[in-house]
Amino acid sequence: MVRSFLEVGSMSGGSMNYLYSRLEYAEFTADTPERRAFARHLKLVAKALHDIEWVDSGDFGPGDENEAIRACLGDAVMLATVLEMAKEAVATLQAEIDRVEGRK
Question: pTM of the prediction?
C-alpha cells in the first residue's frame, strides 16, 4: 500500500519498524559477482528505506528521501515511472474534459 506523507502523519521514530535495518544488516554468502552486486543493491535499498522511514516519521523533510531512492532505482526506472504517471494524468484530464464537454 502506498501512503502519502499526510496520511502517515508525524510519528517520530520507526514508522516502518526500522525495516531498513533488516536489509542493511542482512548476511548471506556473496561469493559470486551476482550475489556481491545484489548485496550492494540491498545497501542502496536499505538507505532508501531508511530515508523514507525518517520522512514518514517526521524526522526528515518531504523529499529528503528522493536522492537515496534515485540511487537504487537508476535513471531508466525513474524515467519510465514518470512517463507512466504522465500518461495516467493525461487520461484523467481527457476523461474530465470529455465529462465537462458532454454537459454542454
Answer: 0.71
